[in-house]
Amino acid sequence: MNYEHIKSTILIVLIALSVVLTWQLYTFQPEIALLDDTARYVPSDSLLAEYEERKLKHVIKPEQMIVHQNNEHVMVPSHDERFTKIYENLLRSNLSEIDLLATGPFPKELETGGVELIFPTAIPVDLFLSLFEQSEEEFMLALTEVDRLFLYGSPNGDVHMQILSIEEERVIELGTTLTSAELGLFLEPLDELIQVRPVLEPSSSYSTKLSADIYISTEPIQASRLSFQTSPLSTEFYKQTLFTDPGSVKYYQQSDGEDSYTDGNRIITMQNNGLFMEYINPVFIESQEKTSKHIVQGSYEFVNGHGGWSDDYLLAEWSSNDLRDEASFLLHVHGYPVLNFEGQGSMSLHISRSGNQVVNYIRPLFELDNAPIDVSERVDLPSGEEVLEHLNEQEFFDPERLNKLVVGYEMVTRTTSFVTIEPHWFALYGNRWQKVTFEEGGTNGLE
Questions:
Q1: Is residue 274 part of a domain?
Q2: In sequence order, which residues have a C-beta less than 8 Å from that of residue 33 and are 6 or more positions away?
Q3: In the listed set 150, 184, 219, which residue is the last one of a domain according to the structure?
């Protein structure tokens, strides 16, 4: 009889244990690193030594600077020291309210002219104001994004600044402590700058008073063809940075021969023979709460948190919807963006977020040496006017779909530690970067 009681007791205990384990398995969710998670694994000092954090103003910069004077327009190249001086001195200015309900036009039509600064994408107004090295005074600006600035001299000798939001079709004016004399001094001599003109067919969605012109050069452009030695970035560093428990990470080789690492949930896959990596962090989208932190701010903090800038990466674009937010920081060399790698995508840090978690991170796993091997080879490119005429001759080209027309670099690998970059004209056409070709007897127009 006692024997039967013992068996019954053991059976009840086993059933209860089974229920408990089943419930724990059913309700278990893996610990997923948050975008701003401060509790994730911190790599050792020896691994962190070669990586650096950067200030926000070093990764958010204008892509073009246009000087307007006497109905003429010239462009200050982004690698020119005058470009840097104007931007940095503007950010050191204190701002004051002038007209927070201005009606335009933008830019102001002034005999004295001014300087237009064009950002590559809309900048959230809070981030824009945080770029300035001033007191914590808060402005209640009646806009949410900043696309362009226009700096012009006021009668009292100070520089005033128009701020344009294209999407909102709104412009406001602020005062700065930059002086007209300083602004003019930074720009001299103007005859060394590149003559440009606006494309006179802005998108129909833009207000005629608040125009957002595309500027193209009216003269040929010279740029350098460069070669660089490269250095690989540590795979071990990213394993220790992106996995919360690096000790649990397992190595696998995929069917295409590329390496991958996973902790059973997150995964890092190597691409292009280890030159790039993609980090994937799957989440249950329906359970994710939308964060109030803007994707530009969150992406900057994510990359800054592990010192992932390596080369000169600048904010290029961002997007946001109910399911996913994305941001990209594009590699720049000598002031030009690297818009093509081996005929594929651009050289960029691309971050995707769902809710408040990074779900995808794609980046190069190499960096360029500080100085090129050879800087003497110059490449002559046609003017922007010629490029636009060439595109307009193409049967399927629609000028309304042209967003930008710029000089950029195409990167090609020669060996695992040696790359060359060559300048070309690129068009942001239909929201996709495409190289403009002029090959005789071959494919012309957009690749």
A1: yes
A2: 40, 242, 244, 266, 281, 357, 358
A3: 219
Q: What tokens does 49 get?
A: 């030594």
Reported as a pLDDT band with limits 50, 70 and 90, residue 97 is confident
- State how far the Cα of 149 lies from the Cα of 162, in Å rounded to an integer: 5
CA distance 18 to 12: 10
**Distance in angstroms (rounded) separating the CA atoms of residues 8 and 373:** 81
Contacts of 72 (CB under 8 A, 6+ apart): 195
Separation CA 121–CA 83 (nearest Å): 18
Number of domains in the chain: 2
The confidence score (pLDDT) of residue 416 equals 77
| Cα 208 from Cα 439, distance rounded (Å) | 37
3-state percent breakdown (helix, strand, coil) of the chain, nearest 5: 20, 40, 40
The residue that leads in pLDDT, 375 or 402, is 402
Asked if 415 and 267 sit in the same domain, the reply is: yes
pLDDT above 60 for 329: yes
Q: How far apart are CA 24 and CA 22, in angstroms?
A: 6
The helix or strand, by DSSP H or E, that contains position 159, with its residue range, turns out to be: strand 158-165
Average pLDDT over residues 16-28: 55
- Domain with 323, as residue range(s), is 224-447
* Placement of tokens 């220790």 in the chain: 240
The pTM for the full model equals: 0.84
Burial class (CB in 10 A: 0-12, 13-18, 19+), 101: exposed
Cα separation, 352 vs 279, in Å, equals: 10
Residue 428, both tokens? 């942001």
Angle at 302 between CA 313 and CA 168, to 5 degrees: 75
Query: Residue 363 falls within a domain, yes or no?
Result: yes
Q: What is the pLDDT of residue 20?
A: 56
CB contact set of 68 (below 8 Å; sequence gap of 6+) = 107, 113, 114, 115, 116
Q: Which of 199, 219, 239 is the last residue of a domain?
A: 219
For the chain, the maximum distance between any two Cα atoms, rounded to a whole number of angstroms, is 110
Beta strand 336-341 with 402-415: parallel, antiparallel or unpaired?
parallel
Q: Measured between alpha carbons, how far is 275 from 412 in angstroms, rounded to an integer?
A: 12
- Torsion angle defined by CA atoms of residues 97, 100, 106 and 108, in that order, rounded to the nearest 10 degrees: -50
